[in-house]
Amino acid sequence: MNNDLLHQYKRIRLQSERICSPLGNEDYVVQPIVDVSPPKWHLGHTTWFFETFILKPFASDYREFDNQYNFVFNSYYETVGARVIRTDRGNLSRPSVSEVFRYRKYIDEQMEHFLSNTSIDEPLRGTIILGLHHEQQHQELLYTDIKYILGHNPLFPAYSVDHEFTKPATNNETPKVIPIPAGIYEIGFKGDGFCFDNECGCHKVYLDDYTITSTLASNREYLDFIHDGGYRDFRYWHAEGWDWVKTNKVNAPLYWHFIDGAWMYYTFKGLKHIDLNEPVCHVSFYEASAFASWKGKRLPTEAEWEIASPNFDWGQRWEWTGSAYLPYPGFKKAAGAIGEYNGKFMVNQMVLRGASVATPDGHSRNTYRNFFHAPHQWQFTGIRLAE
Amino acid sequence: MNNDLLHQYKRIRLQSERICSPLGNEDYVVQPIVDVSPPKWHLGHTTWFFETFILKPFASDYREFDNQYNFVFNSYYETVGARVIRTDRGNLSRPSVSEVFRYRKYIDEQMEHFLSNTSIDEPLRGTIILGLHHEQQHQELLYTDIKYILGHNPLFPAYSVDHEFTKPATNNETPKVIPIPAGIYEIGFKGDGFCFDNECGCHKVYLDDYTITSTLASNREYLDFIHDGGYRDFRYWHAEGWDWVKTNKVNAPLYWHFIDGAWMYYTFKGLKHIDLNEPVCHVSFYEASAFASWKGKRLPTEAEWEIASPNFDWGQRWEWTGSAYLPYPGFKKAAGAIGEYNGKFMVNQMVLRGASVATPDGHSRNTYRNFFHAPHQWQFTGIRLAE
Amino acid sequence: MNNDLLHQYKRIRLQSERICSPLGNEDYVVQPIVDVSPPKWHLGHTTWFFETFILKPFASDYREFDNQYNFVFNSYYETVGARVIRTDRGNLSRPSVSEVFRYRKYIDEQMEHFLSNTSIDEPLRGTIILGLHHEQQHQELLYTDIKYILGHNPLFPAYSVDHEFTKPATNNETPKVIPIPAGIYEIGFKGDGFCFDNECGCHKVYLDDYTITSTLASNREYLDFIHDGGYRDFRYWHAEGWDWVKTNKVNAPLYWHFIDGAWMYYTFKGLKHIDLNEPVCHVSFYEASAFASWKGKRLPTEAEWEIASPNFDWGQRWEWTGSAYLPYPGFKKAAGAIGEYNGKFMVNQMVLRGASVATPDGHSRNTYRNFFHAPHQWQFTGIRLAE
Amino acid sequence: MNNDLLHQYKRIRLQSERICSPLGNEDYVVQPIVDVSPPKWHLGHTTWFFETFILKPFASDYREFDNQYNFVFNSYYETVGARVIRTDRGNLSRPSVSEVFRYRKYIDEQMEHFLSNTSIDEPLRGTIILGLHHEQQHQELLYTDIKYILGHNPLFPAYSVDHEFTKPATNNETPKVIPIPAGIYEIGFKGDGFCFDNECGCHKVYLDDYTITSTLASNREYLDFIHDGGYRDFRYWHAEGWDWVKTNKVNAPLYWHFIDGAWMYYTFKGLKHIDLNEPVCHVSFYEASAFASWKGKRLPTEAEWEIASPNFDWGQRWEWTGSAYLPYPGFKKAAGAIGEYNGKFMVNQMVLRGASVATPDGHSRNTYRNFFHAPHQWQFTGIRLAE
């Protein structure tokens, strides 16, 4: 039964462990900033999803792996016994890495048994598929968080000296400006496959005439912005962005280091010279917006991006848009815990569109709505301009 | 010359001082939270606007009132001589209230002389008009900030025991649900009069079918929300809103106090019992949104509000919308300091539409885009629902 | 009856108001940092002491002035009605300055009536005397807090352009080094007059041979320390002191400003050039200790200071000692609220000995134990060296 | 050559690794609070001491292990290349645990070679001995930090289910009150062996008559304090202690948990019921002082403790004294980096005397001056009373 689903389950679950394979045990544990979770937490949390939403409610003979894992791998784990213990994910040396892998193995065996022997109805199938997409989201976070952990170590250790993403980041296309005529368009997900709830419902929007660039802003252009005093002129910045620049003494994208007269960049292979032809990466919304302002242009809205997207290559960088993350017309939260997935985050964040070199294969759609806070730099973020 | 402008100038400038007339000297000085400025700062800052943008550049014979007032009444005043002095507006006992009034008198005489004797071209006229609208914005802030200062004093002093706003707050209308058909609409300012830069340009939007209520949510309905556990059930709240509720132990709108078994409300006349028929006031975006969610409805977008607005009475409360504060298509910042007026705040704030009982006469338009951060309660904010 | 006490009461109470006489109304209100209280709070709080500890419990016919003043003028005023209002002293525009003066007048009349018509036993007399010394402590705080309020205003307003303290600050004495032989000495208060509880009990200490300087460190010497890189060399500083220097970018005593190539100093007369012969003032314990370390010397202990004090003039500056503020042998807290006066502060503070130009006449003793936290600069503090 | 020293070196260095032997790799990495360092940091830092102060300056043929370890294992490691990277010890996944052990092995071989082949003069010998005592201090910190790391994990993992300290903690002695007569006494280190610079110089003190208890306060007595409302009555507490109780909602010593109606205590063996006869452990200075105040007694001064110490057993708990950590008369910092060892911490900390069950054998003296900040609970601290 469910051969396709089983195959898909195995493939995706394995991929999470593959991403971690170059890590040392210690790399799984630390949490240098609140946004960056320890890799072992990602491995446990995605597993907990299947245990909590599939096995416990639906597998009749299921025996819980460890009844304390719920508050370790849930998002909010504040209480134990009769006393509150405040802790952070990065303070937890236990469960150990090998225990987390045992947990994965146990859940995978149970899931495979369940998938092979159970008749699965549509809603349940939907939840399993959601769990797999959830796992894929955490695969991208594994990349970004591992990069942060190693890239903020003063020894700058490589993740893997010969690491390459499947999708190349460098861009050899000749830049073009793509014009889109005004009119009523439809955006949002429609069709049969999987989408997150925030991509629904498909709805009409009116767009004015606009143009959008066929390529992402390159490191070369971004260096021009730096050299032209972009980080020193408040006129390009939102007021909050300017505060952010001054408070954090920001003068370049994340992972850029000016060493011995040259701009270096921490990559999964270690410190390298900046590649001028590569699309700029690891910029915040504030930086993307200031760069656009310096260029005399602007960021596209998410509707503009989606409508124009068939006309350009995308998938190298998550592209900051000028749209705030808000519900689409007709958006409804699902009932129960699954309903907390997206809706409650729809305030004070900006939408990013596209995908990045770190996005798992098969996890991209041009209706996908990613979202982060304006100051965040640690994702593989980039800039496309509109006018 | 410029008789109309002169008349308008005198009327508006006088109104700021009228608002302050019930205050004691000490009330002009304090700044209980960063968002609330001391009344004397408002009086000085609006005056500084005319000195800086009209008199200094355009009145040939103008002699500056005091060369140190620039960093006292500008938004950012950090440096003096060769040493930085960090201070906050609420730490400045000088200039004294009477000195600020002398400053106003001096500038008013100079402005009246200037307006009476100078030929004023269109751009300059525009800047003067902007200064007057700026003063009117600060008139509403004078009301909200005075309310905060007195309403957070443990003695709960009245502003004036017989104070009444011109516009009554209570609502006797029978509630209706207004349906609006789907279609392309135009929003944004068009016409001849004054508008702020953020209301331009007028542009097309596509709206789906929606309904909007003809009345604001009342204290009665809001009490139902409280009694039904609205502040204790996370499902109604954005994740950030829920954090805000817990961190600040919020359990009611600002100025509500549960005393001896009854809900009291601080008003300009002192502490009063809640009037159940009045539209709820002093709620944050988080509260407005949670209330809407509890009702099974939502907040209107700003476009929906604007298109429907001819069909209902508005002007009692600034109405939170579900729209983030972002630039309209084609929005351009003005050059120079005036260009900082609005654009740089277009991130992480929500739009409010309408006007309130504290909004000066002649300062309302249904294209007006007010904006505050999601947790802010100290403005005269209220709730209208859509579906 | 009680003529002496009555006379003393009137004289001391009047002096608090005299100190405030040059102030504008607005100067009474602000609280620029948590340590600096608004002058009107000092005036109310010292009055509240007499109302709370004398009139309410002992004056049979006493009618409370205002039953809400208890939480306004007590040290901890957090609750009103059924709801907690968090506020700070500097956010309270009411009671107004004139109301506080009416409060003082009312209490003074009641106290004078009480003193004139009541037979007062020894314990009660002790509490009244304590109230007067308490008022004198706040007189010095009025000076230091007014200096902070005006001296941190970017306009640098003078308190009074011809202000002089009774005691001159400048020192014309030839410096000497005073040797004190080892032996058992007695320190602490003994005798008949008033002392605070922390000066008891008188007890024996053993001191080794030591020397102490007859004069305070001058601005000239302190400038040498600055020019010699004193604020840039961590070796002179406690670890916490060095953190304090770096975090706060401290490079001179409080109120020093380097303007147009010269060191200026804010005084009650306004900004003046540094007087090189004056004893340095407004230094923290960290600075006093680093200066001593740079000189190859140390600060005296409080016992060394007290034993040597008959051999030198003191009273210009509160002199930082190397002693932590701890209970003397045999120290007992008094019962009741008065017992909170001193004992509960005996941790993490340093002892200062002597008195300053701002200390009221008749309020000095060589057994007096003043105490502040190590980073505090806003008192009239200075440095005497030992070896 | 130097056989004794070599033997001692090997024995002490081995002991640090023995303490860590029950740990999993992940336990070496985390830093749950700033005071608690990751075990691998302790292992590296103590090794760095020998590399930096012995091998680099004195071993002519020495080749540095890794030139980046200096900023990893020094106390302050802020810079790399041309850019500052801010990080905390607990964010460093590299060097890995096995690399740190390789570092230890390398340094140990080099040190053993050095000690076996070099003639060592007195000052150098002193530095080596200091390094060994430094290592022993970190051995106690390894115990306290490991306890914190495991004891704050919601799984409450045991360090080792059959762990016992050499010194038993339980006390079977009948309590006595020991009287000490007034007089001049001598305190501070004298003699030939090792001592830290803060124990010098030996000096006279005068002590009044006092008594001191022969036993430490027990869990039974401390529970009486809790049951009698000790944590709810401000009168027992310093003002700062009371703030600490309220802010942190403290209601018991560290590691105490009230679970299902019983007080449990996290130990190296896991969660256990409180042993009423054991001396109370993991209390702050604030708690020790409040407990003493509730008993109508006080903490001894460090001089009283030292003089009385031959009359009672000590070594189970570090005993809070009523003395602030200040220099002894005649104290001089050593020149160079070694001079930073103790002196710069002599402000705002309290002295603890004795030793604890976690103190290494041979590392105790009755002149030893340990010191921590008043709120610290994570050391093996206890309470002895005086009067």
TrEMBL record, chains A, B, C, D:
Residue ranges of domain DinB-like in the record: 10-140
Pfam families: DinB_2, FGE-sulfatase
Domain of life: Bacteria
BP terms from Gene Ontology: ergothioneine biosynthetic process
InterPro entries noted in UniProt: CTDL_fold, DinB-like, EgtB, Sulfatase_Mod_Factor_Kinase, SUMF_dom, SUMF_sf
Sulfatase-modifying factor enzyme-like domain sequence ranges: 174-309
Annotated pathway: Amino-acid biosynthesis; ergothioneine biosynthesis
TM region(s), chain numbering: none
Protein keywords: Iron, Oxidoreductase
Protein name: Ergothioneine biosynthesis protein EgtB
